[in-house]
Amino acid sequence: MRVLVVEDEQLLADAVATGLRREAMAVDVVYDGAAALERVGVNDYDVVVLDRDLPLVHGDDVCRKIVELGMPTRVLMLTASGDVSDRVEGLELGADDYLPKPFAFSELTARVRALGRRTTVALPPVLERAGIKLDPNRREVFREGREVQLAPKEFAVLEVLMRSEGTVVSAEQLLEKAWDENTDPFTNVVRVTVMTLRRKLGEPPVIVTVPGSGYRI
C-alpha cells in the first residue's frame, strides 16, 4: 500500500511515517499543502493522511483538488479540532474519513488499512490464495497452516500480489506500491525481494515469473 503523509508538525509526520512503514506500507512524507499537491500529481497513492491546517496550501484545498481530479486515492483528514461541525465539514469536502488529534496510532493504522481496501474492488480483510492466508491487520502470513515470518518489504510485496487476484503485477508496479519515492528505480530490489519471498514461502513455488511482464500468484 502506498501512503502519503501530509503534516506540518515534522516530528509527528515522521513518527507516523515510521510507524506505517513498520506495518509494511510504502510511505512518502511532505510538510505543506503545496508539496502535497505536487506529490499527488506525480505518484499514485492509495491513501493520503492529510492534516487540515497546513501552510502554503490549506488541507481543505488539497482535499478538493484530489476530489476534482477524480483520483481513486482515499483521504484520511487529521485536525486538532474534535468538534462535530468540523468533522462534518471535512467529510463534505470529500474526505473519506476524519480523525481528531491526539489519536492512538493503532486506530490510525486501522483506518488507513480500511481506506486502502476501498481503493479497488472490495476485498475481504484477510486475503487467501494458493494456500496462502495473509492478514494485513495482524501482519500474519500462513501457508497451508504454517506461519511464515516475513520482513516488512516482503510482506508488502506479497500483499500487492495477493490483492491482484491472479493478474500480473510488473516490477514497476511493485516498486510503486511497496517502496517509497527515495528508492532507486533502477535497483534490483524487487527481484531480490521476490526471490527471498519465494524461498520463505517454500515448495512448490506459488509466485510465477511472467517473462517481460512481471509476477503473479
Automatic annotation (TrEMBL):
Keywords, A to Z? Answer: DNA-binding, Phosphoprotein, Transcription, Transcription regulation, Two-component regulatory system
Report the residue ranges that make up the OmpR/PhoB-type domain in this protein.
Answer: 124-217
Task: Answer whether the UniProt record assigns the keyword DNA-binding to this protein.
Answer: yes
What the protein does comes down to: Member of the two-component regulatory system CutS/CutR, involved in the regulation of copper metabolism. CutR suppresses a defective melC1 gene, encoding a putative copper-transfer gene, probably by altering copper metabolism.
PROSITE patterns named in the record = OMPR_PHOB, RESPONSE_REGULATORY
**Alphabetically, which GO biological process terms does the record hold?**
regulation of DNA-templated transcription
> Where does the record place the modification 4-aspartylphosphate?
51
| Record-given protein name | Transcriptional regulatory protein CutR
All copies of domain Response regulatory, residue ranges: 2-116
Family matches, as InterPro entries: CheY-like_superfamily, OmpR/PhoB-type_DNA-bd, Sig_transdc_resp-reg_receiver, WalR-like, WH-like_DNA-bd_sf
The root-end lineage is: Bacteria, Bacillati, Actinomycetota, Actinomycetes, Kitasatosporales
Give a yes or no for keyword Phosphoprotein in this entry: yes
| Superkingdom classification of source | Bacteria
PANTHER family according to UniProt = REGULATOR OF RPOS (PTHR48111), TRANSCRIPTIONAL REGULATORY PROTEIN CUTR (PTHR48111:SF36)
DNA-binding region in chain numbering? 124-217
* Record-linked Gene3D superfamilies: 3.40.50.2300, 6.10.250.690, Winged helix-like DNA-binding domain superfamily/Winged helix DNA-binding domain
Which GO molecular function annotations are given, in alphabetical order? phosphorelay response regulator activity; transcription cis-regulatory region binding
